[in-house]
Design brief:
heterodimer; A: mainly alpha; Arc Repressor Mutant, subunit A; three-stranded antiparallel β-sheet; 5 helices; 3 strands; globular; B: alpha/beta; six-stranded mixed β-sheet; four-stranded antiparallel β-sheet; 14 strands
């Protein structure tokens, strides 16, 4: 599992953790039944507070990406490729809604957005 | 279980008073205790430890009432006040040999581990130590008797950035097992941004807010707007600064209507402290 935290980012740290881990799960880099490190250990290693990690893990669980076995730890959920695709699209859609409102604030048409997106992609 | 449960602590001095100070710290977590100079951090900590007598209030540590179980609880508490200014002409070794007899669970091995970690030499006299070294020595003492609750007053002040970073590492390692809890006061807020789980903010002897760190920060928004917008929102701001480009001000998130086109951002701890201390200046 790879994680890089930015302290200068506007994004809360738990959000950064959640996004990075969920991307790795949905890309299949973390396989199902992969065991996430214990919350307190991860906090020490990442130098973030315990509650931050807890929140990130809770968010992953809420999205059905991991599950908890009491006394054993947190594991990556087994997802069919359809599920993965759907969850991935859900998350991308959420980000797109945010991005779209930014484009709209400049009065861009969808065609203009397409053009610019093609340029930078 | 609660490591610390402070209820309605009051203490009145001629020119200063603690007023109904209450907060709680869950076992196994780190709480940062912030406030300006003279806000009441040290008085609160000393009252918790019964080093100053409180006028009223109740203090429970690890579920036990401090007033009834003080002697017993002090075995479980590690405290440090930054400086050591007693017996300054004694050697570290001599002083430690006296202090360790007070503690049932004193652990020489742990003590020597910290001396080594902090580069402290046992044969030096207290008077010969720099401020930072004294802080480290007092921490080594606080950490060496198996304390379950650490109550530290400005443990990072006087330390260089590398030593501060090391100390925060040690704090996180200590709470990792979930058995030890730490309350530490500081006005270096960057120490807290990363490792603290909870923040308690004291201002003029009163607790302004005590909450989980992200929730604490989320209670406030930093606004950035045009001069014309200031009049609209002035009454709701904690305080504000103006310049030729407009104004910046702090507001409680609940008082802010995001549909207005005033730009808002999430503040950091330092900004929250600055705007609260500005508050008084504005009404004088």
């Amino acid at each position: 599992m790879n994680i890089a935290i930015s302290n200068t980012s506007e994004k809360p740290i738990y959000q950064q953790l959640f996004e990075q881990i969920s991307a790795q799960i949905l890309k299949g880099e973390l396989e199902s039944a992969y065991c996430l490190p214990p919350i307190r250990q991860a906090a020490t290693e990442l130098r973030v507070s315990i509650i931050t990690v807890k929140k990130a893990w809770e968010e992953l669980e809420r999205h059905g990406l991991i599950y908890t076995v009491t006394g054993k730890g947190c594991f990556v959920t087994e997802l069919s490729s359809d599920d993965m695709l759907q969850k991935r699209n859900d998350m991308i859609r959420m980000q797109m809604i945010i991005d779209t409102s930014y484009y709209k604030s400049f009065g861009l048409t969808i065609e203009e957005v397409f053009e610019l997106l093609k340029e930078v992609y | 279980m609660l490591a610390l449960d402070i209820k309605n602590l009051n203490k009145k001095y001629e020119h200063f008073q603690l007023k109904d100070v209450s907060f709680q710290l869950e076992k196994g977590y780190i709480m940062g205790f912030i406030g300006a100079n003279g806000a009441g951090k040290t008085t609160t900590i000393k009252s918790i430890l019964n080093l100053v007598r409180m006028d009223s209030g109740e203090i429970c540590i690890l579920g036990k009432n401090m007033a009834e179980h003080e002697v017993e609880l002090k075995q479980e508490i590690g405290s440090a006040f930054g400086d050591i200014n007693f017996y300054t002409r004694s050697k570290i070794k001599t002083l430690t040999n006296v202090i360790k007899t007070f503690y049932r669970n004193w652990d020489d091995e742990t003590y020597h581990k910290y001396l080594k970690k902090f580069n402290l030499i046992e044969d030096k006299k207290i008077a010969e130590l720099s401020t930072g070294m004294r802080v480290k020595y007092s921490l080594a003492l606080a950490l060496s008797h198996g304390a379950k609750v650490l109550i530290l007053d400005e443990p990072t002040s006087g330390l260089d950035p590398a030593a501060r970073d090391n100390l925060l590492d040690i704090f996180q390692e200590l709470v990792e097992e979930g058995e030890i809890s730490i309350l530490f006061s500081t006005h270096i807020t960057s120490d807290l941004e990363k490792c603290a789980d909870y923040i308690t903010y004291i201002h003029h002897g009163q607790i302004i807010n005590s909450a989980e760190k992200e929730e604490f920060i989320d209670t406030y928004r930093l606004l950035n707007g045009k001069k014309e917008q200031l009049d609209m929102i002035k009454d709701k701001l904690v305080s504000y600064k103006t310049n030729s480009f407009g104004f910046t001000g702090l507001i409680h998130t609940k008082d802010f209507d995001p549909s207005t086109d005033i730009k808002s951002a999430v503040p950091n701890l330092e900004e929250i402290m600055i705007y609260f201390s500005k508050k008084e200046g504005m009404y004088v």
